[in-house]
Backbone:
């Protein structure tokens, strides 16, 4: 363990004005609190906080962050308290130590629901003070470096947690070196044989081809020297995990992998960056599609550099990164560069991102996530992706994750633009909404006021922001439909007891049943979360106690039809008990029963003498009323069978089924089902709509115009 004066010397190397007494007091306090505690390796426990503080000095962080590192385990593992640290070191350090403690207590690899909730807490802690997560990341880095002393099962758990959460988070914050090291340390735990096999192949490769890195470095330095460009050139082999991931993605073996070496060129000015790029491309062949200019289009965490991949005479590919010294500092420290000290003052780096600004840009992407699960999905989507840069027709730059679609582009401009999207043009050509965008493309979004998001867009979108916005819009649209249906169901239920579903009655019922207003109550009725009869019973308990309604005789299902006349439900609207109906007489053919809102009723506006006032008999109707459902389902084994079973579980019979559209990924079909009444039909639709493989389900209304429906013959049984 390094001593306190050695730690102070490390801080003084970049911050001569450091408060040495503060660090000494924190060192003594931490040593006293952890006295008698030991790590699994047998070392005194306090060696760990000291090592974390030492690692943070490499990032040139301020005194409060160094002190927080020394004390970060005291609240959790010792008799120390928040109040004690606040009294000794002040509220700023106490808040940071408490923040690290709370992050430590989050079980980020627990169940999906718990993980989502805890991950949201992690980002809330970050929003208070980003230095908290810097300490936590460094704490995790040291723990991973010494993980061999833990139990095997604990090693695997921590490795998975680090690989899934902390490594990508470090990358998202711009600390790519930390991300790569964390991933490689996790790789050694999760797949030690895979990592060792790559290391063995590196040894063989070096034996066969010699010191490739030194040779290429000398070549680059020689070429830059001739061009009179002052630069620092460093080369290295890529880490085993990075190589393994590339082998997995491309499904190729190590021998066929070419770009396993990377070289970094650090120059003095931005102009030198582009001059260096010219020298490199003149000397070696550039690989098409492997050029990225993050200087003109920097990443949101402040990262700036030119990336290019070139091929030598032997066909071996190498990646070259070109940047200035200021850019290199941000590339190494990421968002942490904001706190970097030099000569006792904050280092002025024009490329360092203000942490508050960075957090605001991150949180903007996740604000639309309405619940923890959506938040977790959004965060993971954002952290695991690289970026592409596209242009609006006005030339504005829109940053998106790699693999983004025009839907993501539209929502990145504005949620309202996303909702109104009807078509997209990329570089002047109309393209499907699922097209993957590439760097430098110009994207024009065509909108229409009447347009609204489609359910299929969720699968097309790749950004968390777009997915969350689409889901929220669909929920709002569904809620509007639920309110409308709930109002009709409530009206019918109240009418059954001779009452009216007035606004006042619904508001009273909403308060009694614990809903926030009558609209919430109606939405719950429409979504089958509560029955309309329950609402009536809450207001009129005595009426609700009436005996159960009797079964309705099928031949007397409709009241108002001459007993001698034949009648039939109109195939265009297929009315069912519970809906308001009207009859249309057909000379010599009886009566056709239509729903009151059937579009065909407009044909009979001038023939009022043919209208017959009808209503359904009260009571329980037999499930003999055929209704057609228009359903879109996934084209996958077992889906249709499961949907049929789901319908049967709702006590509804399928009388006919026909496909009207077949695509590689989905089927659209019409299903005739026999239901009792409107509530039975609604319950059936809601049950189907909740199935993950049902993209859409709705009641089908036949488009019959200027036709007289077939009327039951005298020998047929009335429907």
Residues:
């Amino acid at each position: 363990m390094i001593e306190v004066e050695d730690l102070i010397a490390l801080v003084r190397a970049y911050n001569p004005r450091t408060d040495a007494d503060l660090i000494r007091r924190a060192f003594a306090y931490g040593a006293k609190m952890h006295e008698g505690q030991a790590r699994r390796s047998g070392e005194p426990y306090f060696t760990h906080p000291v090592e974390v503080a030492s690692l943070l000095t490499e990032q040139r962080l301020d005194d409060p962050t160094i002190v927080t590192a020394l004390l970060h385990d005291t609240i959790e593992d010792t008799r120390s308290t928040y109040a004690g640290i606040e009294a000794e070191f002040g509220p700023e350090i106490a808040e940071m130590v408490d923040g690290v403690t709370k992050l430590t207590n989050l079980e980020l690899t627990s169940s999906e629901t718990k993980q989502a909730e805890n991950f949201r807490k992690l980002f809330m802690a970050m929003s208070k003070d980003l230095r908290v997560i810097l300490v936590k990341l460094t704490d995790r880095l040291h723990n991973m470096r010494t993980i061999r002393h833990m139990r095997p099962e604990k090693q695997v758990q921590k490795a998975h947690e680090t690989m899934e959460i902390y490594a990508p988070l470090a990358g998202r914050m711009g600390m790519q070196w930390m991300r790569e090291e964390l991933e490689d340390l996790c790789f050694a735990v999760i797949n030690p044989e895979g990592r060792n096999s790559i290391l063995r192949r590196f040894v063989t490769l070096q034996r066969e081809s010699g010191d490739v890195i030194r040779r290429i470095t000398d070549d680059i330095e020689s070429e830059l020297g001739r061009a009179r460009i002052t630069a620092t050139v460093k080369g290295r082999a890529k880490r085993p995990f990075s190589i393994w991931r590339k082998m997995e993605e491309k499904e190729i073996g190590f021998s066929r992998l070419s770009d396993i070496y990377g070289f970094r060129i650090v120059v003095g000015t931005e102009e030198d960056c582009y001059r260096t790029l010219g020298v490199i491309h003149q000397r070696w062949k550039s690989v098409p599609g492997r050029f990225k200019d993050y200087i003109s289009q920097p990443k949101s965490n402040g990262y700036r550099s030119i990336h290019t991949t070139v091929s030598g005479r032997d066909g071996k590919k190498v990646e070259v990164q070109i940047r200035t010294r200021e850019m290199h500092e941000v590339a190494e420290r990421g968002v942490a560069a904001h706190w970097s000290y030099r000569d006792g003052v904050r280092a002025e780096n024009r490329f360092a991102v203000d942490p508050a600004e960075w957090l605001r840009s991150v949180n903007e992407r996740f604000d639309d996530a309405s619940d923890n699960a959506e938040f977790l999905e959004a965060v993971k989507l954002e952290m695991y992706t690289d970026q592409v840069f596209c242009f609006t027709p006005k030339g504005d730059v829109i940053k998106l994750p790699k693999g983004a679609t025009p839907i993501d582009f539209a929502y990145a401009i504005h949620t309202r633009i996303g909702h109104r999207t009807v078509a997209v043009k990329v570089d002047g050509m109309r393209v499907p909404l699922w097209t993957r965008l590439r760097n430098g493309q110009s994207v024009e979004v065509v909108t229409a006021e009447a347009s609204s998001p489609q359910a299929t867009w969720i699968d097309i979108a790749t950004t968390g922001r777009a997915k969350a916005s689409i889901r929220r819009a669909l929920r709002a649209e569904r809620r509007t439909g639920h309110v409308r249906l709930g109002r009709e169901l409530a009206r019918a239920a109240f009418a059954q007891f001779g009452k009216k579903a007035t606004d006042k009655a619904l508001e009273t019922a909403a308060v009694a049943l614990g809903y926030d207003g009558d609209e919430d109550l109606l939405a719950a009725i429409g979504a089958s979360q509560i029955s309309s009869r329950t609402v009536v019973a809450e207001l009129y308990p005595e009426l609700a106690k009436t005996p159960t309604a009797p079964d309705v005789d099928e031949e007397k299902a409709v009241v108002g039809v001459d007993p001698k006349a034949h009648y039939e439900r109109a195939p265009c609207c297929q009315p069912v008990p519970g809906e308001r109906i009207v009859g249309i007489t057909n000379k010599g053919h009886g009566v056709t029963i239509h729903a009151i809102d059937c579009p065909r009723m407009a044909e009979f506006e001038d023939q009022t003498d043919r209208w017959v006032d009808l209503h359904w008999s009260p009571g329980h109707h037999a499930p003999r009323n055929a209704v057609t459902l228009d359903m879109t389902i996934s084209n996958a084994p077992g889906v249709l069978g499961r949907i049929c079973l789901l319908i049967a579980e709702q006590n509804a019979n399928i009388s006919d089924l026909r496909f009207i559209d077949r695509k590689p990924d989905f089927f659209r079909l019409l299903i005739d089902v026999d239901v009792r009444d409107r509530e039975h039909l609604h319950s059936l639709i809601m049950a189907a709509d909740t199935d993950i493989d049902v993209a859409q389900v709705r009641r089908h209304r036949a488009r019959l115009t200027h036709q007289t429906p077939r009327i039951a013959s005298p020998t047929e049984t009335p429907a």
